[in-house]
TrEMBL record:
InterPro entries: HtpX_protease, Peptidase_M48
Protein name: Peptidase M48 Ste24p
Cofactor: Zn(2+)
Highest taxon of the lineage: Bacteria
Cofactor note: Binds 1 zinc ion per subunit.
Main location, first listed in the record: membrane
A GO cellular-component term linked to this record: plasma membrane
Membrane-spanning intervals of the chain: 50-67, 168-186, 192-209
Length: 298
């Protein structure tokens, strides 16, 4: 059974993207992260510290994208997926990229290791999708197309940029909180007890908000995959099949069978994702194709 924290109020489960709510809460969640960072900086050094933190975040956002996707692929020991050996997968990716209106073709890589998995990284001009070896050999063509549609939806929605921003906000909050605690412990400043508690807690709060953003983008990517596939059926089938494979293949590794608390997980429960897909109304994906049909076609 999926581990869903029923003790939380429904509106909070939806806001934190543990259960589907029909609307994206990405930007309110990011605003909360920015608010936590600004409050922490202001408490530590007033307006000047808050401004310094904003400048540091801006610099990190400018410098972080310089990391090449190829470097990350090397760190993950991924290798390019040969188009000559797997032409159908490359054709699927190209077709879905055209449907999404992307003006580039994502680069495909193959990840080592067990379990069905896929990641999307890079910028809008250089998106890279890596799929696992198990995904390559255990998914049917329809399921593979659904997996690729989900990953291309991440690129279509600009999720790599959004997740980069949340990572920078979290790291900046963690750094300021740690600096504050060191100052409280080793400096001459004698803060009230509540301030020490706040600085000890804010990194965890920022981390939980970051995880909520990631889960929210997963719901949105599922919806985007439904748009690209002209309906949610293939995505639902793929989610069920992938979950079964991963339970079996990763039985010795903590995964869905020993699922961590949903607040700490990067993905919503599979049951919640399927429920969200089944709740989609037909018009939400048919309109996508009406708007993006190439000129001159019927």
């Amino acid at each position: 059974m999926e581990n869903e924290p029923s003790s939380l109020p429904v509106f909070l489960q939806r806001f934190l993207a543990i259960s589907p709510g029909g609307n994206s809460h990405t930007f309110p969640l990011m605003a909360c992260m920015a608010g936590v960072l600004a409050t922490c900086a202001w408490m530590l050094g007033g307006l000047s510290m808050a401004i310094s933190a904003a400048i540091a975040v801006a610099l990190m956002l400018v410098l972080a994208p310089m990391i090449s996707p190829e470097v990350l692929m090397k760190l993950l020991r991924a290798r390019p997926l040969d188009a000559a050996s797997f032409p159908a997968i490359h054709e699927m990716a190209a077709m879905l990229a055209r449907r999404a209106g992307l003006d580039y073709l994502p680069k495909l890589f193959l990840l080592p290791g067990k379990g069905v998995n896929a990641i999307t990284t890079g910028t809008a001009e250089e998106t890279t999708i890596a799929i696992s070896n198990d995904a390559l050999h255990t998914l049917s063509p329809r399921q593979m197309r659904a997996l690729l549609a989900h990953e291309i939806a991440h690129a279509w929605h600009g999720d790599t940029r959004i997740l980069l921003m949340t990572d920078v906000l979290y790291r900046a909050t963690w750094t300021i909180a740690l600096f504050g605690l060191m100052l409280f412990i080793f400096g001459d400043f004698d803060p009230p007890n509540w301030m020490v508690i706040v600085f000890g807690v804010v990194p965890t709060v920022s981390f939980l908000l970051q995880r909520a953003v990631i889960r929210d983008r997963e719901f949105i990517a599922d919806h985007g995959a439904s748009d690209l596939l002209n309906g949610p059926e293939d995505m639902i089938e793929a989610l069920l099949h992938i979950d079964q494979i991963n339970r079996r293949r990763l039985r010795l590794i903590p995964y869905r069978s020993t699922q961590p608390p949903s607040l700490l997980d990067t993905h919503p429960p599979v049951s919640a994702r399927i429920r969200a897909l089944r709740d989609l109304k037909p018009g939400t994906w048919q309109k996508f194709f009406e708007n993006r049909r190439p000129p001159g076609t019927k």
